[in-house]
Amino acid sequence: MRLVLLSGGSGKRLWPLSNDTRSKQFLKVLDGPDGEKESMVQRVWRQLEACGLASSAVIATSESQKDLIKRQLGENVPLVMEPERRDTFAAVALAASYLFSVEKASPEEVIVMLPVDAFVDTSFFENFELLERLIQEGTSDMALIGVKPVYPSTKYGYIVPGSRRKGTNAFAVEAFTEKPGEDRARELIECQALWNCGVFGFTMAYLLSILEEEGLPFEYELLKSQYHTVPKTSFDYRVVEKAEKVTVLQYEGDWKDLGTWNTLTEEMAANQTGKGVISESSVNTHLVNELDIPVAVIDASDMVIVSSPDGIIVASKESSSQIKELIKDFRYPQMYEERLWGWSRVLDYAKYPDGQMMITKRILLERGKNSTLHYHHNRDEVWTVVRGEGEIAVDNHMYRIKAGDVVHLPAGTKHALRATSDLEIVEVQTGMDISNDDIIRIHDTWDDVLRAHNGSAAKFIK
């Protein structure tokens, strides 16, 4: 059995902590077993390791999330990266082609796909062996996991079960209903419908047959080069709902989607994170503050107050899920990003009448870490070293830098930076159409950077 974990989306219902790169699964707001805060993806990976399943898993994600996944799970976590976001069918197809053509998984191998941010007990993942057996019996094209609803949610899909499989807690699937209204959800619950957990099992051969129907190649690199031609649709719609023989395994434990501030705060041990104070008259209220200024909350009940460099939300918990629709037209740069090498925070942003842009960032590279060797088409950069020491590659030259140094990097200049101690810089970007898409990466590791500059004994210019 091989697992494909899907890590995508921006998680805008958890704005302002989440954005396109720091999606909800990366927010360190849950309490881990050692008392340290952990993210949803760290929790799921820890649970898979406890079940002995992590070694069989790959994570399907985007280039923008690569650094955060490696930062939180380690440099060697296996990733399959989409060239662009094209919904879940394309992501699963690419991951399956990787397992088949690169990892040499057999056509009979059972593939289980699941979201990377499920909030469940570890016992949930122990059901995957039964899911595998249901597929191997050959009586089902697909096997799913569903959970008994605890209220008529309008956020989840529903699975209507039919006849029970003898000797199991598995049922034939009669129908699917996607995110119904509340009245319809009540009717479905009366029919014993289950919430769809987003976990699907199938054989490699079954998915390859779908790729063949679509005229798509099985070979990973070839499919990646043709990725823009893969239908932009959900796996549920293209595969699951069109399967003829589908079985659902009913999970008896707790399952929760922590996709809104209302549900997430239910699993947070402390009512307050960061600087601030909540008055005793405030009941069932949570404060999450990432800023360096304090926030005072007085006589506010059933509320969530969250502040970050990206913005501030003040909302009733019950209505907090409306934030995604409310901010849909926001067009601001991401103010805070965690990267494999450290973090960056936007200090100032301006767009002038002639279209010119200016972004000022505070950047920290952790000791021993390095940026990629890259360049930009549309922006010039000026770096001022605030503290620490490091090494910088600029086109064909190498320099040592320290606090007080200023580095000018015109557009088109190839550059990379390595911190020999914790290194903090202030970066000023100027130009037209400044965006994270304007990064042309050449080398990732510092050894490769050195080799590109005449080997590991590259000479530094003082």
TrEMBL record:
Pfam families to which the protein is assigned, alphabetical: MannoseP_isomer, NTP_transferase
Domain Mannose-6-phosphate isomerase type II C-terminal: residue ranges: 339-444
Top-rank lineage group of the source organism: Bacteria
GO molecular function: mannose-1-phosphate guanylyltransferase (GTP) activity
Gene3D superfamilies, A to Z: Jelly Rolls, Spore Coat Polysaccharide Biosynthesis Protein SpsA, Chain A
PANTHER family: MANNOSE-1-PHOSPHATE GUANYLYLTRANSFERASE (PTHR46390:SF1)
Annotated protein name in UniProt: Mannose-1-phosphate guanylyltransferase
Protein's organism: Marinococcus halophilus
Classification lineage: Bacteria, Bacillati, Bacillota, Bacilli, Bacillales
